[in-house]
Amino acid sequence: MAQYLILIYENEEGYATASPDDFAAGMKAHTRFAEQISALGGTMLGGNALQPTTTATSIRDDIVTDGPFVETKEALGGYYLIEAADLDQALAISKLCPAPFGGVEVRPIMDLSGG
Amino acid sequence: MTTPFDEVHRAIADAHRREWAFVLAATARVAGDIDLAEECVQDAYVSALDAWTRDGIPSNPAAWLTTAARHRAVDIHRRNQTLRGKLPLLVEPDVAATDVEDVEPIPDDRLRLVFTCCHPALGREAQVALTLRLVCGLTTAEIAQVFLVPEPTMAARVTRAKKKIALARIPYRVPDSAELPDRLDAVLTVVHLLFTTGHTAPAGEYLVRADQVDRSVGLARMLLVLMPDEREVRGLLALILLTDARRRTRVDAAGRLLLLEEQDRTQWDHAQIAEGLALVVNALRGGGAGRFAVQAAIAAVHAEAPSYAQTDWPQVLELYDELLRRWPSPVVALNRCVAVLMVDGPQAALDEVDVLDASGRLAGYRYLPATRADLLRRLGRFAEAVEAYRAAIALADNELERAFLNGRLSDVLELSRSTS
Questions:
Q1: Which of the listed residues A35, A46, B45, B318 has the most CB atoms within 10 Å of its CB?
Q2: From CA A47, how far away is CA A34, in angstroms rounded?
Q3: What domains can you pick out in chain A, each with its CATH number?
């Protein structure tokens, strides 16, 4: 088994203009996704949604600035840490991850156990 | 009694060309890691030189090489136990644990190798490079030649792709039936790309790179043996054979590029055409043909036509429409314009080319201005044709294509002067 981080990149405008109903539907989609992970043979190890990039603070060379590290149209808005047998399984799981205003990036976690 | 050096050398070269993928794939099961498997297979080929000279050429070179490579892999694993925890991905415990002497019958793992090299998580260039390296056994220098890049650049690309396979755990497996159509399409695209860049070299002094074409034919044949029921594999092999059948007529004795229109059809490879036609009939049977089968059908219409003028152009146009429905590629749309020219005339074709041009989807594609130039020339709009030929020449890096376009440019320059 290997671990992967699913990074959710979305256009924040999408959520800024969402109605309470849309928001509830989004939450429900994520709850369902969490169930689908195990149905596909993977394990969810963790995950969180992030506050928008308007709340971000960056530090480069000790200089503190307001805003995200890199300005992009689609910003990192949340992540899941999962365990899967291989990349194919990780991709099958990630395809189901809700990201209506963007998409996801899948990154293998570096194995530092040295085993 | 020793076997003559030449004979051994030939047998090894032969085994390299024919059996590399088989030996590597069968070794990967035991080695557990593609890099290690590659190293062991290289060692096996080296040790074959001495052993075959001393003991004679084995009746089954692939089995001999696989056994030697597997032994080497097991030795390395024993010596370096720490590797075991780290790289168990490709190891099948049942195989690794059983007697490595027992290699008969060796399971044919070549498909697993091909699908791993062409995994969608790898970029197209990496897929082609890895296929050439792992399936065809080419050296980094040879692959660099194919891509026309310096060797260190290619070495870095191959290393990066192999690292991604290991670190992201791209599985060593044939996809299941649900995924197979998409994944197979990627494999066929890689082989087709290898063919097209060999059929007409994107740059350089030769029109055709024959070794590359031959390799693509070899790969397509191998895929057909391994997946006899996949019609698109049949379609791709047919497409390659029918297109390549024109090879020796595409350049004249003076080294000048000859268009389909000017080629001596009696000199086409008719045995290859017959094989291609039989394959395409099979690939089209039962409807719902894929894009390679439809492209092969277009090549078949040309192969069967007695001359350019007597070609069944309405059928070619119909097939292009069919192809566009399956595969809405702007390159297909541009190729279709040639059929539009032959059926509806140059103005209708030019209108379609201009729509494509305006879409910007073919920006920088050398055949767009070349096609426009030809249509403008046919319409007698010579001043505009001059501009279009110049644009095409600026994009042409193949010397034969450049020379052809320069010839056309001087023709229209003269015509534009005499008409103005």
A1: B45
A2: 10
A3: 2-108 (3.30.70.1060)
Tell me the two tokens of residue A67.
């805003």
Residues of B in contact with A83 (CB under 8 A): none
Q: Give me the domains of chain B, ranges plus CATH numbers.
A: 5-101 (no CATH), 179-251+262-329 (1.25.40), 346-420 (1.25.40)
Residues of A in contact with B84 (CB under 8 A): none
pTM of the entire structure? 0.87
* Exposed e or buried b per residue across B227-250, where buried means at least 16 C-beta atoms within 10 angstroms of its C-beta: beebbbbbbbbbbbbbbbbbbebb
- Residues from chain B contacting residue A88 (CB–CB below 8 Å): 170-171, 173, 175
B169 touches chain A (CB under 8 A): yes
Does B170 touch chain A if contact means CB atoms closer than 8 Å? yes
Q: Kindly give, in sequence order, each residue whose CB lies less than 8 Å from that of residue A52, ignoring residues fewer than 6 positions away.
A: A12, A15, A16, A75, A77
Nearest alpha carbon to residue B68 among B105, B24, B32 = B24
Is B265 within 8 Å of B258 (Cβ atoms)?
Answer: no
Query: Tell me, what's the ipTM?
Result: 0.87
Q: What is the mean pLDDT of chain B?
A: 91
Q: Which residues contact B36 (CB under 8 A, 6 or more apart)?
A: B73, B76, B83, B87
Residue A93 three-state SS: helix
Residue B105 forms contact with A (CB below 8 Å): no
User: Touching check for B121 and chain A: CB below 8 Å?
Assistant: yes
Q: Over 70: is that where the pLDDT of B260 sits?
A: yes
